[in-house]
Each structure stands twice: as C-alpha cells, then as structure tokens.
Write a structure and sequence with these properties.
Layout (H helix, E strand, L loop, with lengths): L1 H32 L5 E3 L14 E5 L1 H4 L7 E6 L6 E11 L2 E5 L20 E5 L8 E2 L2 H18 L6 H4 L1 H23 L7 H4 L6 H23 L1 E10 L8 E3 L3 E5 L2 E2 L6 E7 L4 E3 L3 E4 L4 E2 L2 E5 L5 E13 L4 H10 L1 H46 L1
Parallel strand pairs: 8-9
Antiparallel strand pairs: 1-2, 2-6, 2-7, 3-4, 3-6, 4-5, 8-17, 10-16, 11-15, 12-14, 12-17, 13-16
C-alpha cells in the first residue's frame, strides 16, 4: 500500500511539473512570437471585473474560433490606443468599417478615443469563454511580469549583458530549455525521496523521460508551426485605372505601371523572414524576400500595371512569415517547394533548440545511473568473494 501511495505521489509531482513547464513555455513562446499562445494576461484594469489586473486567461487563435461577434473578448493589435500594440478588450458592436471595442471598466469605446474600427486582420487571439464567461488564471500575468523583470534585471547586471534576454530570441529559447532542466531536476529529486525499501523499484519510472523530451519537442513544433500558419496573411491592393494622373497612390494612369511600397514589420522577439507572393499577373513583387530583425520594419516594392480599361481593380498579395532560425536562402528554397515544407523545417529546428538541453540532461542522467549500477555490481562481487 505504501509503495502504491508513493507511486501516485510521484506521478502527481511529474504531472504538476509538466503543467508548470507547459505554462512557462506558452507564456515565453507568446513573448517570443509577438502573439498570445494558449495563454495571455492583462497588465491594466480596463477589463475588470471580468479579468482582474495581472490575471491570465486562455486564448484561442481566430482560425479555430471562426468569426467573432459582439460579446467576444479579443486580443487585437491596436493602431493608436496607448501608443499601439496588443490590447485585450470586448467587441461591443460591429459596423461596415470594422468592430467597435471597449474595456469592461471603461466608460467609452476605443473608437470614441483615437482607435479606428478594428478589422479581422488585427485580431490575433480570442479569449475562451465557456458558458459565456472568460476562463481566467489568477495572478498568472503578475507572475509572468515578475519573471520577465527578474530576467531583465539579471541580464543588465551581467557585464556586457545589456538587455540581451529581452531582445534576443535565441537567449529566451535557451531560458526555456534551462527552465525545463530545472523543473526536471526538482521534480525528479522530489520523486526519489522514498523509503529505502522501495528504492530499487523507484528506478523503474512510470514515465520514460525520453518520452517527456519528445512531448516537449512536439509541443514546441506544434506551437511554432501553428503560429506561422496563422501569421500568413493575404490582402488586396486596390487601384483605380484612370484616364488622368493623380497624386493619390491608388490611382494609376491606364495602361501604365507604377511602383508602390508595401509595409511589413516584425513585432516579435525572433527574427522573421517575410516572403511576398502575388496572386495577379498585373502585380509584380520586386523584393520577394525580406529579413526583419526583432522590432524592425521594411517597405518592399511592388509594381502594379493598370489595365487599358478604366475602373477599380483588386490584386491579391500574400505574405508568408517564417521565424529566422534558418538562413534566409534556405527558407526561400524550402518555400519554393511548398510553404508547409518551410514551416515544418523551421518548427522542427525551434523544437530541437528548446528540447536539446533537456535531452542532454536525460542522457547524462542515464549514463550516470548505468555507471553507478556497474560500480555497485563490482562492489557486491568483491564483497562476496
């Protein structure tokens, strides 16, 4: 009975470890990718009492939830509100120009301020609302902000460290790996604190550590791959073929070609490779590939030819985004085969970077355990003879 109780206790500790590791991974991945992944949190009281300041909440990508409507709580990329950036507010109305949003604690809508109506392209996540209520995680945001502040403080206190942890995506990935190593060590130490009578059985773990490493890698691959799929975006460039010249950028003299700039930016903490593709013969992308450092922006050019017949014409332009963990030339080659090929290659690379430190710890532990086993066997034989 005691052995069975100890086994259950060990499995519970490991389950807690996986849950905590998953939460940390989701929060840091969201910070890296510049968009909420599984979990998000609020830093202000604009959504009280629905979401308290510092609380976290579960989010879903718009591709999963489908069309949003009035009453949904969404995370959108604000243009003007509080200087721009991700904002969590509720949709209160829908117009021809877009959605009207408002914080539950605010007396007026965002559009009464300086924010234009929110479009579908601006919505990056939707809060999960089972039974109409937002599913919150108390103090999750507070803990995440304290962790981030501690990491930044540690980075600036190291000579030459600067703000590496807050700006360098590879360093944050390393932090994720180290976090899993620490969690693995702590929970393994907890699980091995058993009576001597059951010590021999404790070496037969109910959960194979290698499977845990594989699960971590698969989870990271799924998160990054799904995020890159969501980041791909198609837009329409509308121009007017006219019989006269105009200062308006969307008006082009018929049967002539003009160049226009297409703004692209990177709001995440990982470098991004942007690949533009045209869906129209009259729209030619001059700079198909753009590498963007964290926080950087660019304006690649496209050439648009106005037809001889006057009128309004729309041209489809698709942007694919890949995390720049592989050389841009390699990403372009993989993309030319198929976008999914490039997505899988990048996702597997990031999954390997995150899970590699944990795999090393598991390997070292296995070698150490085997060495101790051989040493003990030799001692037993010497004592017997």
């Amino acid at each position: 009975m005691a052995e069975q109780s100890t086994t259950i206790h060990t499995q519970l500790w490991r389950l807690v470890g996986l849950l905590v590791g998953g939460v940390l991974l989701a929060l840091i991945a969201g910070n890296l990718l510049g968009t909420p992944v599984v979990l998000s949190f609020v830093e202000t009281g604009s959504m009280e009492p629905t979401i308290q300041t510092g609380d976290g909440f579960v989010v879903l990508p718009p591709a999963v939830t489908g069309d949003v409507s009035a009453g949904d709580v969404v995370v959108f990329d604000a243009r003007e509100l509080e200087g721009g950036g991700l904002t969590t507010h509720r949709i209160v109305n829908e117009t021809d120009d877009g959605y009207i949003t408002q914080g539950d604690a605010n007396p007026f809508t965002d559009q009464d301020d300086s924010e234009p109506p929110v479009s579908d392209d601006q919505i990056v996540a939707v809060a999960w609302q089972p039974n109409g209520q937002v599913l919150t995680v108390p103090y999750l945001g507070t803990a995440s902000m304290e962790l981030q502040a501690t990491m930044e403080s540690a980075a600036t206190s190291v000579p030459g460290g600067g703000t590496t942890l807050s700006t360098d995506g590879s360093s944050l990935l390393l932090v994720v790996g180290i976090g899993f190593i620490v969690l693995s060590f702590l929970f393994e130490q907890q699980s091995t604190r058993r009576p001597s009578s059951s010590r021999s059985r404790s070496r037969s773990l109910p959960v194979d550590p290698r499977k845990v490493v594989l699960a971590v890698g698969v989870l990271v691959c799924a998160i990054t791959g799904g995020t890159m799929i969501v980041m791909a975006d198609s837009s329409e460039l509308t121009v007017i073929s006219a019989e006269f010249d105009s200062d308006r950028p969307d008006v082009i003299l018929k049967d002539t070609t003009e160049r226009q700039s297409v703004p692209v930016d990177n709001g995440g903490l990982l470098p991004v490779v942007s690949v533009l593709e045209s869906g129209s013969e009259r729209l030619v992308v001059e700079d198909t590939t753009t590498s963007l450092a964290p926080g950087a922006s660019a304006e690649p050019e496209v050439s648009i030819t106005a037809p001889a017949k006057t009128g309004r014409y729309s041209h489809l332009l698709t942007e694919y985004r890949y995390f720049g963990v592989l050389p841009p030339t390699m990403i372009v080659v993989l993309h030319s085969i198929h976008p999914l090929v490039a997505i899988v290659a990048v996702a597997v690379t990031i999954g390997g970077i995150v899970s590699a430190p944990l795999a090393m710890v598991v390997t070292m532990r296995t070698v150490r355990t085997r060495t101790r086993s051989r040493s003990r066997t030799r001692q037993d034989n010497d004592g017997f003879w």
